[in-house]
């Protein structure tokens, strides 16, 4: 999910939270959203967006928009029926061989 942020100059950016590396406060007390990504054109370099918002609030917005698959450890998405079937198949294989 893309999140809209308006920078200190009034420009609105729609940020993909997957590419955010750091949310930090600069010397002026403003919040910087640091992005890192690869691609073509302007997207080949790191970039940052400076906003007049609380860094904790910015981080929470980014966390809420993260895809579930990124936050879930590998293997944790297996449902109970699939796990039981795999266990039964392993037991059958061990018993017959």
The largest β sheet comes out as: 3 strands, antiparallel
Shape: elongated
**Uncertain regions: pLDDT < 50 for 5+ in a row?**
none
Distance between the termini: 49 Å
Helical coverage, percent range: 25-40%
Please tell me the total number of domains: 1
Q: Overall mean pLDDT score?
A: 79
Order of helices and strands: EEEEEHHH
Proportion of beta-strand residues:
15-25%
Class computed from helices, strands and strand pairing: alpha+beta
Keywords:
3 helices; two-stranded antiparallel ribbon; alpha+beta; 33% helix; 5 strands
Write up this protein.
The chain contains 3 helices and 5 strands; from the N terminus they run βββββααα. The longest helix has 17 residues, at 80-96. By secondary structure, it is α+β, with helices and mostly antiparallel strands. The protein has helices spanning 55-65, 68-71, 80-96, and strands at 3-6, 12-15, 20-25, 31-35, 47-51. The protein is elongated, with a radius of gyration of 21 Å.
């Amino acid at each position: 999910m893309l999140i809209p942020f308006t920078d200190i100059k009034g420009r609105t950016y729609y940020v993909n939270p997957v590419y955010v590396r750091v949310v930090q406060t600069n010397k002026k007390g403003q919040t910087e959203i640091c992005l890192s990504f690869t691609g073509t054109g302007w997207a080949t370099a790191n970039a940052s967006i400076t906003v007049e918002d609380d860094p904790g609030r910015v981080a929470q917005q980014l966390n809420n928009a993260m895809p579930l698959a990124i936050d879930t450890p590998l293997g944790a998405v297996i449902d109970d029926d699939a796990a039981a079937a795999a266990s039964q198949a392993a037991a059958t294989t061990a018993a017959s061989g």
